[in-house]
Amino acid sequence: MNNMTNMKLIYAISTLSGTIIGVGLFALPYVTLKVGFWVILGYFLVLGSLVILTHLFFGELAIITPDCKRLPGFARIYLGNWGEKIAYISTIFGAFGALLAYLIVGGEFFSELLSPIFGGNHLFYTLLYFIIGAGLIFSGIKAIAKVEFWGIVLFFIILFAIFFRGESFITIGNLFPSPDFSFAFLPYGIILFSLWGAALIPEIEEMLGERKKKIMIVIPIAILIPIIVYLFFIYLILGITGTQTTESALTGLRNVLGDRIVSLALIFGLLTTFTSFITLGLTLKKVFWYDLKFTKNLAWAVTCFLPLIFFLIGAKSFISIISVVGGVMLGIDGILILLMYKKVSPRKQIIIYPMILVFLAGIVYSIVYFS
Description:
This protein is mainly alpha-helical and 371 residues long. It is 77% helix and 0% strand. The chain has helices spanning 2-20, 28-35, 37-64, 71-79, 81-118, 122-139, 148-166, 187-195, 201-207, 215-241, 254-257, 259-291, 296-312, 318-344, 349-370. Helix 3 crosses helix 14 (318-344).
């Protein structure tokens, strides 16, 4: 029985960590280049604590609330119709922004991997990436969404392969560039985006079965693992590429480590973004189809083609997009969770209101800065 319980805990932690570690990872070395390592470390300490507490509060809500799978369902119960509508808006626009980010970075990885062999420009490979992904979302294939544990294993194998190949190229001084204070608030939305996994909390609670209260152990461990991984990834990529660090991290490695190890890294980056693109696309399609009563084909078309349209008309700044999604949409989600939690635990208002103010300030900053 203890072994079964331990395996459930390990699987729950790896599932949540595997979902959290996503496309935001690739933005972190570039952002650190702009603000310096100590600033990034400070952000992780503050926002990591904020995210862990918010997720713990949502975990408590999940334990006491039966049969709710998505944030809008919780919002309807605890906040009424207005909360449900705002939750739908933040969920839908947040998902659109994330799909656009996957399209931008996935298309770049695809192009970097195949264009040296087959030729063709960046747009061609982005469209090919989109066509394959949209086709799988249409057909409803979802088995690839259930590979979090082995995805983490593969991730660490490739990460250490890059480390052992590039260790001699790491320069500690690269981690401490002269900070540009005009970028001082840039990490906020990106780090929030990189640490957020609230959408999966109800699933984790269900996964734990009769030991659902163990979710209060799972959540902090599952968020601390990505923080440690991110800091190591920053050390590795920025330490190797320095001022040549690109927005999507991996492409800048080619000039230093050569094609073979970079191709391995690009394959991983491509798989990471592609599986996330399909998983999130399937989820958003269900929101339109089941919850908002679109026809199945219309739900698919809106889900897939709206991000593509934004890409084609020029929304191609990966950093800006995940900053806005993290700062605004996830900030709204955080505020909704805190307002719901206040209903069931009014004694904790002394903690809740300052947390709401942080999310609110982040929303205002992200709208003003990126508009």
